[in-house]
Amino acid sequence: MNIGTSGNVVLRKLTKEDISDLAKHANNVKVSINLRDGFPKPYTIENAESFIEMANSQNQTTIFAIEYKGNYVGNISLMMGADVYRKSAEIGYFIGEPFWNKGIATQAVNLITEFGFKELNIVRIQTGIFDYNKSSQRVLEKCGFTKEGIFQKAIYKNGGIYDEIRYAKLKNNLEMHGDIMSN
Ligand SMILES: CC(C)(COP(=O)(O)OP(=O)(O)OC[C@H]1O[C@@H](n2cnc3c(N)ncnc32)[C@H](O)[C@@H]1OP(=O)(O)O)[C@@H](O)C(=O)NCCC(=O)NCCS
Predict the structure, then answer these.
(1) 180 domain residue, yes or no
(2) Most buried in the list 27, 83, 111, 179, measured by CB within 10 Å?
(3) What tens digit of pLDDT does each residue of 79-99 get?
(4) How many domains in the chain?
(5) Pocket test residue of 101, 125, 126, 163 for ligand 1, highest count of atoms within 8 A of CB
(6) Residue 54: inside a domain, yes or no?
């Protein structure tokens, strides 16, 4: 299942064929340093297998492979909020280091944002980025996300304290009004 194509970038479901490339690209401290500690380090073949199994057991798929020129190069996801946050989702993504700075994340974020607003009945997509991750901040700015604020000293990563930069993009239409919005 493809959910969108933009230039050389395709978002599609993860498959078992992605296991070795996922493990290869994810097993990199330059990737994990920008992600939560729940992201395995080292990232093994077994981690990749169980991640892909989990992604493929979702009722509504919100975790996708990013393909560039026919190659698996990374993942992107929307994690749905719960309770009063159920009209919001958190975006997350990573690209394998050999493929950085080719515009891939920018195209992937645009594709999943369009998918989220069209298919998931959400009105807000958000995330927090560690202060030192300038590349990811630039990606979200290129994709029209708004820098909403700084959560000072919110992040404790690898023994250091860092600010978290919060970004969001809103669905921009009438469905956002509470009086015409259902569950
Ligand atoms: C962040 C990440 C997803 C970016 O992916 P990418 O495909 O290289 O992104 P793009 O090529 O679309 O855009 C990167 C932009 O950041 C810029 N950039 C890169 N390094 C930078 C730096 N140190 N300072 C400022 N800008 C930087 C690039 O020049 C480019 O902007 P431009 O198009 O204006 O030149 C990728 O580096 C990655 O996976 N990092 C590790 C995991 C991660 O950080 N995930 C996101 C967690 S919030």
Answers:
(1) no
(2) 111
(3) 999 999 999 999 999 999 999
(4) 1
(5) 101
(6) yes
Task: Give the CATH number for residue 145.
Answer: 3.40.630.30
- Supply 68's token pair: 């560039």
Enumerate residue ranges in the chain where pLDDT < 50: 174-180
Residue 80 structural domain: 2-174
Q: Is residue 182 part of a domain?
A: no
Predicted structure pTM score: 0.95
Beta bridge partners of 67: 10, 72
Q: Give residue 145 CA to ligand 1 midpoint distance, Å.
A: 15
136 CB near ligand 1 (under 6 Å): yes
Edge-first strand listing for the sheet containing 88-95: 2-6, 9-12, 63-68, 71-80, 88-95, 124-130, 160-170, 146-157
Nearest residue by C-alpha to atom 48 in ligand 1: 129
Per-residue pLDDT at 177: 46
- Structure confidence at residue 68 (pLDDT): 98
Cα 153 from Cα 3, distance rounded (Å): 36
Ligand 1 pocket test target in 11, 77, 97, 135 with most atoms within 8 Å of CB = 135
